[in-house]
Structures are given as structure tokens and as C-alpha cells.
Inverse folding.
């Protein structure tokens, strides 16, 4: 016998009441459709000029960027509401969804406020040079892959390249949230603590702000490096391909290859060599060999500069600054810089080996454990060895600093860590000698500091408690009573 539905309390009600999230999703969908209809009608009636009539450019603004930012914010919010309505957001991932929402909406709002951007002009000029068969500009200090990928866009104009790179940079930041969170899970962070740590790192971060402000390739490069770590467990070939692509965007990711050398994974190294050669071969087939010669010449030109730039904090810049202050010794600079770099490289490799031997950051066994434990020191080393190290390069230091936090125990350790974190990620860009080299000092000290902490086998008590609490804490609200 059919039982009566307790939710049907009157003849005017049919079925269960729609959930609030479903109502919100329906409203969002209706508003989205309405906006699309208005835009389509305007275009149908008056073409592109009519679209301009329903948009207005404000002061110190760019109407196209305003549209992209508004669309991104609307789609992110809509995706959240739709997933909520479909029941795909629950107590297990609600915190992750909230953290991503906070990070994405913050930076969508921030990047919309800028109307001038930095390095994207160098990318456009390099791509245009390849189209014309000319030499790469002297300011282009990257392998030719990135400029080669942009050649097709250049034919549509500078603005087309800029718009595509602006959108890709924002999408790459969104991707970074999930890849960095997944990487922290490999380093022993609970699911929720990984979300909180990733959001905390990204929300207040000068290198992230500057990477967005310059439309830099850092996010793309870092995402590929993290993908190389995450894919290693499943596929050596895909892991090697990811790192090879990163090394063809910027040379510095080659430092991470040392982790696989330490692991003695010759199969991975073979895949990396094949991938790197294939990418280089395609680039040469598209342009010829000369862009690689130009890249080498441009990179070598960095060491010929005899003036310092306080904003960039490399070892080279520090030596140049000291030489410039005394106005003597320019000819001796290479004999000072290269031995210093050799000492730094040796210290970085020694730290990576110590972390591997003591399983300082990850409990994984075998080759994966070796790679994960060696990687943090190598991320630091890749920044320290660069001849030019701008503040936005510090975005590559997410893994070493977040992983190191799990080892902290005493008040002194937390204070030292906090001071280094402040100098690297929170200190605004400044051009004052010697304070501008605080980032360099923090990274140089990271190597012995992390090695010292790795001697203690236990994780820090604060991290252990936070990890355990976030793993077991209930975030699900109590069930709502049905009327």
C-alpha cells in the first residue's frame, strides 16, 4: 500500500520543495542567459558598435579587461553554486571549495585594477622577431619555445597576444591552487590543512601579485614542475615531459633534474632527454637554430653588465652592488661570482642529500620519496643560481617553505621561519641597499636551517596537532529540519 508523502501538506504543493542551492543555481543560470540574450540582440541589431553602447570604460581602466574579470568572477561563483546544487560540495571538500573561491575572486578583482603590464611586451617582440626571421631582442632571456608558441597569435596583433596571455595567466593561477594543494598532500598535509596552507600562501603573497602584474610565465612553469612531481608515481614519461616543457619555458627548472639523478632513476632521465630533445627539435624545425644562439648570447650578456639592480636579489647583483659602491674591481667580478655560485650549488646539493637520507619532508619510500625529499632544496637552489632573480621568481619557493613548516618546533625556529617568510613573500619590492638583499639572505639561510631541522625525526607538535585536527574535525552542519 502506498504511503503518503509527508512533504505534501496541501493540494497546492507538488513534490518536495527546491533546495536553496538549486534555486540559487537556477537564478544564476537565468541571469547568465539574460545577459547573453542582451549581448546577442545588441550585436544583431547594431554589430560591434552596439556592444560598445552597452559597455562603458571607466577612468584608469580597460573595458576588455573589465569584461574578462567580470566574466571570470561570475563563472567562478556560478561554478561554485552549481556544484553546491548538484551535491558535489560536501563536508569533505567544502573547505577546499571555499579556499579556492577566496583566492580566485581576490586576484580576479586585483588584476582588473591594472591597465599596464610588464614582461608581456618582451614576449610579443620576441614572437614578432621570429615571424620576421630576425634575431631575438636582447631583453628576451628565455629559450625560444614560448616565443615560438606565440607566433601564430602575433599575426592577429599585439592586443590579441596580450588578451590571451592575460586570460591564460589567470587560469594558470587557478590551476596552481589545485596543483600546490595536491603537492602538499604528498608532503603529508591532511586534505583540509593542504587547502588552508595553499590558500594562506596565495592570498597574501608579493611574488604572486607581481607575476600577475607582469603577465610572467612563472605560473605556467611552476605548474609544470609540480606536475612533474605529481605524475612521477604514475608515469615517468609524463613526469619527464612536464619538466622538459618547464625547462624550455625557463632554464632554471633544470635544477629539479638533480632530484631524479639522486634517485638514480635512469629511465626517467632517458625520458627527460628524449622529451627535451623533441621539444628543441620542433622549435628548430619551426625557426632554425639561430634563436637558440640568440638565447645563449642574451643570457651571456647578463654577466657583462657592470651596474647593479637592487630590485633583483641574485648573488650576481649583490657582487655588482658591492663593486659599484667602491667603484673598482669590475674585471674581477666573474672570479668572485662563479666561485660563490659553486659554493651555493654544493650547499644546495648537500642539503638535498641530507633531506633525502633523513626523509625530512615526505615519508614515501623508494624513488618517489627520494625525489620528494630532495626537491625543496632544489627549488631554493634554482632561484639562488639564477643570474637575475626578481621578486616574482620567489613564487617557485612555495614548496620549500610550506614543507619546512611541518618541521618547526621551538619558538626560536618559528621566529626564524617567520622572518624568512616575511622577507621572501611579504616584503614589498624595494630598491634600497642592502635591505633589498634580504630575500637572498633568507634563501641562503634556508639551506643550513632546513638541514639542521631534518636531524629531528619527529614533525613539529603544532603541525602534527593541526594536521590531526583538520583530518578528523567535522565541518558538516547539522541536518536541517524539514517543515
Amino acid at each position: 500500500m502506498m504511503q503518503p508523502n509527508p512533504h505534501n501538506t496541501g493540494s497546492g504543493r507538488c513534490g518536495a520543495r527546491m533546495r536553496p542551492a538549486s534555486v540559487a543555481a537556477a537564478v544564476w543560470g537565468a541571469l547568465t542567459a539574460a545577459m547573453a540574450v542582451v549581448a546577442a540582440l545588441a550585436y544583431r541589431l547594431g554589430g560591434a558598435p552596439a556592444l560598445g553602447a552597452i559597455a562603458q570604460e571607466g577612468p584608469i581602466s580597460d573595458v576588455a579587461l573589465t569584461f574578462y574579470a567580470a566574466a571570470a568572477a561570475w563563472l567562478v561563483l556560478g561554478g561554485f553554486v552549481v556544484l553546491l546544487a548538484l551535491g558535489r560540495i560536501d563536508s569533505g571538500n567544502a573547505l577546499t571549495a571555499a579556499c579556492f573561491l577566496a583566492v580566485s575572486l581576490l586576484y580576479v578583482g586585483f588584476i582588473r585594477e591594472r591597465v599596464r603590464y610588464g614582461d608581456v611586451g618582451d614576449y610579443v617582440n620576441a614572437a614578432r622577431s621570429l615571424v620576421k626571421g630576425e634575431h631575438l631582442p636582447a631583453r628576451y632571456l628565455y629559450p625560444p619555445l614560448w616565443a615560438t608558441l606565440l607566433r601564430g597569435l602575433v599575426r592577429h596583433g599585439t592586443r590579441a597576444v596580450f588578451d590571451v596571455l592575460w586570460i591564460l595567466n589567470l587560469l594558470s593561477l587557478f590551476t596552481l591552487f589545485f596543483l600546490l594543494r595536491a603537492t602538499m598532500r604528498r608532503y603529508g598535509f591532511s586534505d583540509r590543512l593542504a587547502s588552508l596552507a595553499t590558500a594562506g600562501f596565495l592570498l597574501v603573497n608579493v611574488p604572486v601579485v607581481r607575476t600577475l602584474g607582469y603577465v610572467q610565465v612563472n605560473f605556467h612553469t611552476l605548474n609544470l614542475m609540480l606536475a612533474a612531481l605529481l605524475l612521477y608515481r604514475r608515469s615517468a614519461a609524463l613526469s619527464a615531459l612536464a619538466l622538459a616543457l618547464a625547462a624550455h619555458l625557463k632554464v632554471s627548472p633544470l635544477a629539479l633534474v638533480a632530484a631524479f639523478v639522486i634517485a638514480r632513476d635512469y629511465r626517467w632521465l632517458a625520458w627527460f632527454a628524449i622529451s627535451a630533445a623533441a621539444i628543441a627539435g620542433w622549435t628548430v624545425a619551426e625557426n632554425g637554430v639561430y634563436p637558440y644562439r640568440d638565447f645563449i648570447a642574451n643570457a651571456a650578456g647578463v654577466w657583462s653588465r657592470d651596474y647593479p639592480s637592487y630590485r633583483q636579489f641574485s648573488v650576481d647583483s649583490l657582487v655588482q652592488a658591492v663593486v659599484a659602491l667602491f667603484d673598482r674591481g669590475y674585471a674581477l667580478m666573474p672570479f668572485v661570482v662563479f666561485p660563490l655560485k659553486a659554493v651555493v650549488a654544493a650547499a644546495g646539493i648537500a642539503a638535498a642529500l641530507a633531506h633525502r637520507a633523513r626523509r625530512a619532508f615526505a615519508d614515501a619510500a623508494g624513488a618517489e620519496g627520494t625525489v620528494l625529499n630532495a626537491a625543496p632544496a632544489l627549488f631554493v637552489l634554482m632561484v639562488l643560481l639564477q643570474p637575475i632573480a626578481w621578486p616574482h621568481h620567489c613564487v617557485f619557493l612555495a614548496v620549500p617553505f610550506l614543507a619546512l613548516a611541518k618541521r618547526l618546533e621551538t619558538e626560536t625556529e618559528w621566529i626564524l621561519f617567520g622572518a624568512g617568510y616575511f622577507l621572501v613573500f611579504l616584503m614589498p619590492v624595494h630598491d634600497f641597499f642592502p635591505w633589498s638583499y634580504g630575500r637572498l639572505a633568507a634563501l641562503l639561510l634556508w639551506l643550513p636551517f632546513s638541514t639542521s631541522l631534518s636531524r629531528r625525526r619527529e614533525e613539529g607538535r603544532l603541525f602534527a596537532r593541526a594536521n590531526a585536527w583538520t583530518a578528523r574535525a567535522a565541518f558538516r552542519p547539522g541536518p536541517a529540519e524539514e517543515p
Q: What stands out?
A: The mean pLDDT is 88. The radius of gyration is 26 Å. The first helix runs from residue 20 to 53.
